[in-house]
């Protein structure tokens, strides 16, 4: 059974295995396919048109399915690997072990934001950026430059306290838990973390930075915590909503999975600590 | 959209050097701007054509609905932005603010602010051509 752990608790061997599995997917091209899929949805999900992966109720089930698929790809390389999660309310500085050379590497240099240490530095030749928004083929980060502070525990708690999953107009203007977690309104959780990391994480091709998966694993864990706090609050909307994925509608690109299928994560994985 | 001209390349290189000092300040001012100050949902932003940190940025209403015309109601909400002639993929949020593929997670109040933010982020690099609609 897959158990997702807090990245700060990983052993040196677990970190090495995770990094090696990422590099293997990069080599065989599967990694870049995930980056392409994400950017395609980023560019096609609109507030007034069809929306699946972002700015809509299915933001959470879509990314849950996306992460499961990625985790399965990692496990095809090394069955012992699970996605770690990054609790950015606790590990909130560039000095965190997450950014050490034996794990994801650190922030980019000032001249061009290029990451220069760790397995994902361009000097290692193992992490060329192929799915690009601009001409640069090296991984970029600017930790803490785009926004000074990561979200706090108190800000997370204020969003977890919201009892309604989502509301009309079911987009970036909605009130409710999903949109406050996604970050288009209010204290801004998920979006702000993308901006804090900066570089590729601030772009539509954000999965180019492997921290994308650790960030979204934590967002996914927050969803499980919200479900535990609000056992009587269902996924919304339930039916006949234009341009939006209802509870039992299938989600692109898979076509065979619905938000309802994604409500219980425990058949796929669990988290190291109870919600 | 052909490759960049020599003049653009020199301009970009010069801006990468001269503009870097301004990047911190530009970023700070971009962060300080409250997106809702100037945003009026439904109001049509004006055209612009200027040089910012050595890059030519242009924005104008486009009646074809932007690059992916007709898809999902038009991404650019009838507005297009170019940096040194290359189209920047943009999108308008429901509250009237704007995002681009370069700064996807941080809305800006106007297309001009969005174009400037992209220039800061690009650090002299050129945009890649927009891919065809995938879904």
UniProtKB/TrEMBL annotation, chain A:
Cofactor names: Cu(2+)
Residues spanning the membrane: none
Keyword set includes Metal-binding: yes
Domain Tyrosinase copper-binding: 54-71, 209-220
One Pfam family it belongs to: Tyrosinase
Keyword Metal-binding (UniProt): yes
Domain of life: Bacteria
Keyword annotations from UniProtKB, A to Z: Copper, Metal-binding, Oxidoreductase
Family the UniProt entry places it in: Belongs to the tyrosinase family.
Protein name, as recorded: Tyrosinase
Automatic annotation (TrEMBL), chain B:
Disordered, as annotated region: 29-48, 56-78
InterPro entries: GriE/MELC1_sf, MelC1, TAT_signal
Domain of life: Bacteria
Protein's UniProt keywords contain Signal: yes
Swiss-Prot/TrEMBL keywords: Copper, Signal
Signal peptide (from-to): 1-28
Coiled coil ranges: none
Pfam families reported for this sequence: MelC1 (PF06236)
UniProt cross-references to Gene3D superfamilies, sorted A to Z: protein ne1242 domain like
Family: Belongs to the melC1 family.
Protein name: Tyrosinase
